[in-house]
Amino acid sequence: MKILEFLQQDVLIKYNLVTAFAVIGITVWLSYVVSKYLTRGRIHGSAIAIFVGLVLAYFGGMLTGGSKGIADVPALAGIGLMGGAMLRDLAIVATAFGVRMEEFRKTGLSGILSLIAGILISFFIGACVAYAFGYRDAVSMTTIGAGAATYIVGPVTGGALGASSDVMALSVAAGLVKSILVMIVTPFVAPLIGLNNPRSALIFGGLMGTTSGVAGGLAATDPKLVPYGAMTATFYTGLGCLLGPSLIFLVIRLIVE
Predict the structure, then answer these.
(1) Among the three residues 83, 112, 139, which one is the final residue of a domain in this structure?
(2) How far apart are CA 155 and CA 241, in angstroms?
(3) pLDDT tens digits, one per residue of 2-53
């Protein structure tokens, strides 16, 4: 039976949210299997899953001629709800609540500066690349700059500013590329930058920001450092979501408009 014919069955369409959970669960499971056995953990399973999602979104839109990617397939319409703003923001808030402020204070001023520098540099580079490729309005520049911060900050910022779907897709793609690069490069540069203790891992997470990239890179370097880097990377995501559609957007708009 062809895949499209299978997805047109009434029971799958009627319970499309259950179908969506099953499809996402299988995709994530397979992604982590690929991460473990084919990349030996150097590329995190979450990054592979996001890449697969982007590919499926492309082919879903191409096959159906719709505008919502794979969610235009009736049986997979529930993915539109799963990937919507409500559950996305709930996941971000839930992650932030898992961080203990007293642990973060141990990094002192260096941890705070690494967060601020990491966010501003990522936004600046992303906005400059967007400008170079013809995106000259403040909304698009800020959204793509946010994607250069992380693939979570990008759509959150774009959604808040009313960015177009193609710009938001670019922001996710930019964040995904950054995440994969951080995963791959971290083990090789760790000896050169002294990334071998909790304090340096906290600062590294603040500078890089992409939680999955930092976690994957540190796991390949020294698994004991993963919680420390992931902690400041989580703060990075929250701070980016706060500053992106507010202060950073106002600054970019002041400059380009």
Answers:
(1) 83
(2) 9
(3) 555 555 566 667 777 788 888 888 888 998 898 888 877 767 677 788 778 7
Whether 189 shows a pLDDT value over 60: the answer reads yes
Residue 88: inside a domain: no
172 in a structural domain: yes
Give percent of the chain with pLDDT exceeding 70: 81
Domain with 242 in it: 100-256
| Inter-axis angle of helices 138-149 and 153-161, nearest 10 | 160
Q: Of 83, 109, 135, which residue sits at a domain end?
A: 83
Share of the chain above pLDDT 90, in %: 15
- 10 and 115 both lie in a single domain: no
Q: Would you say residue 92 lies in a domain? A: no
Q: How many domains is the chain built from?
A: 2
37: tokens are 């056995």
The pLDDT of 116-136, averaged and rounded, is 91
